[in-house]
Amino acid sequence: MSRSPSVGANGHGVQAEDTRICVVMVGLPARGKSLIAQKVVRYLRWLSVPAKTFNVGNYRRLDTPQPTAAFFDTSNKQGEKLRHAAAEAAVNDMIKYFNNKAGLVAVLDATNSTKVRRKWVRERCDQANISTLFVESKCDDEDLIMSNIMEVKTTSPDYKGQDPESAAKDFRNRIRNYERVYQTIEEEEDLTFVKIIDVGSQVVINHIKDHLQSRVVYYVMSLHIKPRSIWLSRHGESVYNLTGRIGGDSNLSHRGEAYAKALPGLVAASVPQDAHIQIWTSTLKRTIATARWLASSKKQYTTLEWKALDELDAGLCDGLTYGQIKDRFPEDFASRDADKYNYRYTGGESYRDVVIRLEPIIMELERSENVLIVTHQAVLRCIYAYYMNVPQERSPWMEVPLHTLIKLTPRAYSTEEQRFTANIPAVSTYREKGGEAKHQTAEDEVGLGELEIRDIQANEEEEAAEKMSSFDEEVEEVIEKANNEAAHGAIKPAIVRVSTHDGHVDGDNISIVIP
Amino acid sequence: MEDSTADVAAASPRFRRKSSTFIDAIHDMPEKVEMAPAQLYSTESGRLFHAGKIAIATVGLPARGKTHISVALTRYLRWLGVKTRAFHLGDYRRATLPAGQEVPEDYFFLDASASTVLLRQKILRKCREDIYQFFERENGQVAIYDAVNPLAAGRRSLANELAKHDIQTLFIESACHDQRIIEDNVRRVKISSPDEYAGWDAADAIKHYLARINAKIPHFETMEEKELDWIRVCPKQRLMLTLLTAIKMINAGDKFEINNRNFGYLARRIVFYLMNLQIKQRRAYFVRAGLSASNTYMSDDGLSDIGIDYARKMTETLIKHREQEHKQEIQNEEQEREQRSLVIWTSTKKRTIETASFLQDAGYPVRQRSQMVALNPGVCERMTERRIREKYPEEILKHEADPYHHRYPRAESYHDVAVRMEPVILELEREGNDLLIIAHESVLRVLYGYLMACKATDIPKLSFPRDEIIEIVPESYSNRSIRIPIPGLPNDTIPSSPEDIRIPVPPSGTLTPINIGEAFSGNATPLLSGSGSPRRNASPNQDSDHRGEGSMLLVDRALRKSGYLPQNKET
Questions:
Q1: Which residues form the 6-phosphofructo-2-kinase domain (chain A) (predicted)?
Q2: The domain that contains A28 carries what CATH number?
Q3: Among A129, A350, A359, B513, which residue's beta carbon has the most beta carbons within 10 A?
Q4: ipTM computed for the complex
Q5: How far is B138 from chain A (nearest CA, A)?
Q6: Are residues A151 and A217 in the same domain?
Q7: Active-site amino acid positions of B
Q8: Strand B246-259 vs strand A202-206: parallel, antiparallel, or unpaired?
């Protein structure tokens, strides 16, 4: 329905109202400023607060696409002038953005490394009645800086198409030029600021003025920039899935069990040796069962059950099929289609409700390193939407097939996605917008064509399970094949997709899909 | 008020105080496990966010606002559903020493005498035993250990000892360098007890008190320990320009320094909360919106004539009351001071905005907040109670079993309202001005429930009759609430809550915001249809003397009798 709530009427998510905040990044190059900037924007949008990044580097590149380090030398008058013009253009656009009531938060992504520059930004914002929050990332950890340099030289548009070695060297010279004039934020400047020292091992927070600012600081405190990945998987096919029923707390079907057994192999294909992984599941049987082989496969793997990862509560509709819902609650069925994100099942939850309860999960995910989450369709969509910047009107409609492992790797400028398919057949639980309320049976499933499929549309789960067991003997072969593939490392990611953090570009347009 | 119930609890750890009467219940422990107002989920162990057991130990000299922070944090964490309890070491000291006896002069000395060391250990042991009991037997999750903890060595050994019990320690140092704030704290909290500084000149008393602290606690080391998790909170006083006057605001956490070894979700959440916390004396007033033409949730009507009349009278009463309060404060403090500014928050519904119109005309700033829209009644809107009973008999049963968490079809529960209002609650903590909240009763219930630490089960039953303004007076140790009657309202303004969903609430055992045990009942506001004024509709078992009397009048009387309310409080 409403794409982005208008200023002053943000009826959902966090309180924003009449505050307009410019988050001003401060810090030397390669200190993770852009990463923080983009993440803040993504997080706020996920919580329904409209936000946008203004990257001064992008403005500067309009005139000077690939400058050398000398451009950033403070004694270079021409460079100085161009860089100030870029900052000026970014700030002007930002003020326009606020005046058009397009958003509540803007992030000014630049080094802002001197007191004079910070004072200038602050005065411009004061004049436009925008409050400022300075976020400084201060880091002297050589390893971290190096890994950032490596990342930047390979992904930054400034060095596109250049020799990586000379790019790294030039970038280090650029940093040196900044170091000469860099002044860390001091209390005497009387700014509202948060200073993150060595990736959050020390934090100084000064004079936070309103709630939304505190919210941003709270989030920024959770971030780290150590390399890691997040794996997402739905539970294996459940008995309820077979009969098309939603919700409940049913066990895995035989094919679901097969996926649980194949999961360690799938994970092994995409994890560095000896990596520690935390496995998070919901408290429902089907996710715990799905993760149990994986959990016991390596001693570096630890598990945690989260109530907050439980499936969207369908209230009165829990345990019904889409067909039954349509018959019994035709109006609800229609209104859910009309605005799925905000639709709340009678006695249950909406996607918006799920996002609210997932907030602690997101915060904990930001703080953690390698995490593998086995959860449910709606919950997985919400978490995926956060990482891949999927807008609210699309996220509830995303297709996330069963028996597929999604690997997300956050990078400085983007999140990289890989999908690993287990080749274990499962019913599809996907129903597109306005689609039939019909449940897709195993007959429709691609990949099962040569197998004889019996009717599994039974009402009682036991009955269904029983019927499935004979059917399953026949798919045993398929499963074994899949397991073998997994064991021999023959699994290759099915889809690779890259999505930038800053989703003001439509998610689909910027996706690169490599078949 | 520091020597109240906590002393009793400290002296006899197994004694459990019954629900509080006129002060808020922040120092009570709920007797049975139930979901807290804004709790998102429950776990078998009762511990949330996978945060394990956490001890928060305060660090700081007296009069730096440690107790304020402890109590405020307890309130917030409990609201989130985290089982939290504050252990004030001062209470244990007082409870251990014979009445009237002070701690020995060398109590905080590094080279204390043997007998003092023994006494110190005895007090500490008692307090820590209670903390362990809280974790082990009561499934506690956060224990706030409110003590001076002046020395680095002591803090290290505390963290080590707690770690042996699988408890993670987070230190919060309250480091105030602003002499004015310290003196203000001393004035408000430390020398206000009548016996100690009776007959003293305020300035002399402050000076004496601070000198005594310096002599008693000569060694204090600020937190520098790199190997511990800590937060240093520095309150600062700032001049804030508002529409009417310049006011001084004290940000409880104006500056933070954080040493973060392993902050979990909860620790970061605590910082988040502290960022919004103010040390303040500001009052909050709660009033209902006036009546509108249709009084339904969906329609967004303006006020009816009766509603406008109500808005005018409410405004007059409030302004008059605030003037009196101001005079009273000047009298109490023996010094001239400006009246605190007042801001008004309404929901985005017309009837709440229009109820504020007279105040707005008088120059008070009014802010609209979308989160303060009434509880969505869902399918129950415009349905009579009988109709609901006919149509949704199972829902009625479910509702009666858990009126706080139950949602009628397509409706919100009180829990939903509480969760969506969390940002409002943080802003409420941040607001430095006096605050008038004009909202639907369901919203007032939830906000009141936070400020007075009401149990989730009681919140749906709190009553806010239209002919009263409810005032909440913050105090460092607990909040206090007062009702101010609005005189001269016609009868049909007062009765019932026509905006309410007419959900049946069991008539017995219901509560008003401030309840004295079971002295009165029958005040559930969602009225059975056709009944008259809630307060005039006393239940049969009620003492006839109380009939027709505003419940708060009773409370006011009790408060005055016990000396908690000034004698000249209007009735």
A1: 15-227
A2: 3.40.50.300
A3: B513
A4: 0.73
A5: 21
A6: yes
A7: 146
A8: antiparallel
